[in-house]
Specification:
7-stranded mixed beta sheet; about 525 residues; 4-stranded antiparallel beta sheet; alpha+beta
Length: about 525
Amino acid sequence: MNGISRRGLLKTGVAAGVLGLTGMPLRAQTRGGKLTAGLSGANTSDSWDGRTHSDLFMIASAQGAVFDSLTEVGADGSLKGELAESWEASADAKVWTFNLRQGVTFHNGKAFGADDVIASLQMHVAEGAKSAAEPIVSAISEMTKITDHQVQLTLESGNADLPYLLSDYHILMYPAGQIEEAIANGIGTGLYQVQSFDPGVRMVATRYPDHYKGDSAGFFDEIEYIAINDNTARTNALLTGQVDAINRIDFKTEALLRANPAVRIQELTGNQHYIFPMLTKVAPFDDVNVRRALKYGINRQEMVDKVLLGHGQVGNDSPIGPANQYYNADMEQLAYDPDKSSYYLKQAGLDSIDLDLSASSAAFEGAVDAALLYKNSAAAGGININVVQEPADGYWSNVWLKKPWCASYWSGRATEDWMFSTAYEAGAPWNDSQWDQARFQELLLSARAELDSNKRREQYYEMQQILRDDGGVILPMFANYVQALNNRIATPDTVGNLWQMDNGRMAERWSVA
C-alpha cells in the first residue's frame, strides 16, 4: 500500500504503534445506540475459530468487533498497532520485536500478554490446523517471550511485510490455556462482548466497558449482525428499516436504492477481484495449453459491463490490483480471442473440450450470470462449458477447493507478498488452483526478503506476468465495493477499502448520526 515504504516500515514501528493507540482523526462521533447490519457470507458451520474465517460475516464479527489482532490496517491504508503497541526489526528484517499493549484484558477478565501471542500464533501451525494463515506463521522459525509484554519473532528469511501480515483477519489473539473456551464462547479483547451467537443466523454483542481503545473507537452500545445471504432479502431489509446497513448490493437494484432519500450508497475501489480458479493438479487443467485456451476464451470487458455494470475494471489474471504498490498497470492485457483459444486447444491435442463450471451467488453477486457469459464467449473457440448452479449454503465447504473449476472471489491484500503467500504459494491451504510453478515460487521467496524497492518491483512485475501466462486462475475483473446504509448511521470521512464494510470494522469506526 502507499504511505509507508518497506524501508520506512522498519524504522517507524514506534510511530505506527503510537498512531494505533490514539486512533486516526475522525469527525466527532456520537456514543450510544445500536447498529444492525444485514450481511452476506454467513454459514451454519461458522465459529469463533479465526483460522476458518473466509467471508464477511465472520470477519466483521470477529476481527471487526469481538477479537483483536497485533496490528491493523487503517481506513487510509496505513499500518497501525492494535495489541502490539510498537515494533522494530533487525536490519535484514529477519528478527522482529513487538512491544505489547499493557492493561488489556480478555472479556473473561484474563490479562493479555506475551503468552497469549505465542499460543495464538502456534494455533496456525498445529498439526491438522488447516489454517489459511499457515503460510504466514510457518515462516516464523522461533517465538520468544522476552517479558510479559514483549515477544520476539525470528523468521526463516527476512520479510519487511511481517507487521502487515500479522493484521490478517485469521490471526486473532486468544487467551493462552483457554483457547477452546474462547472459541466456544467468543472470548476476545475486542470492543464488543458476545451476548448471543447463532451460526449462520445472527450475532449480538455489546460494548465492552473500559476498553483500552477508550473513546476513540466502538461508538455503539450494541451491534447485531443478521445473516442475509440472499441479495433481494438483504435489499428489502434495508429498505424496510429492518437493518441499518448491507454489504454487496445487487447492481441491478442500485437505482432503486439511490432513489430512496433515506439510503446512501458507498462505492470504494480496492483490490477485490472475481475469479474462476482451476485445480491444476486435476486433468485437463494440469495442461498449461488448456489453461491458456480458457484465458483467451473469456470476454472480460463484457463481464465488467454486464455483471458489474461498470463498477470495476478488467482483470489480467493477476491478483495484484490498483491499490497495490507494485501493480503492473502496463502489462499487456489479455484480450478475448477465440482463434487463440482454438490454437491452444490444438496444442493440447484437442479440437474441442467439455468442462463443468460451478457457480453460485455465494461466490459473488452475478457469478452465475458471469459463468453463463463465459459459456457463450468460450464456445466460439471450441470450449463447451456446462454451468453448474450450486446452492449458496455450504458453497465454501462443498465446492470451493473441491470442485475442479468454480467461481470465487478475493478481497485482495494490502501487500503483494500477503496476497501471493495466502493464495499462490505452493502448498498454501487457500491456494485455490493448487498451482506450483518453479520460477514463481523462487521469486516469491526472493521478493519477500528484498528491501530494495526497485528490485522488488522488478520481481513482482515478473510474477504478475507469470500468473497471466501460466497461472491456474482466470481473473476477469476487479470489482468495486458497493454497500448501502441508512442515514441514521454516520461514517468517518475515510472508509477502508481493504475489505467490505470499512475493512469489516464498521462496529469500531461507525456511529449513530
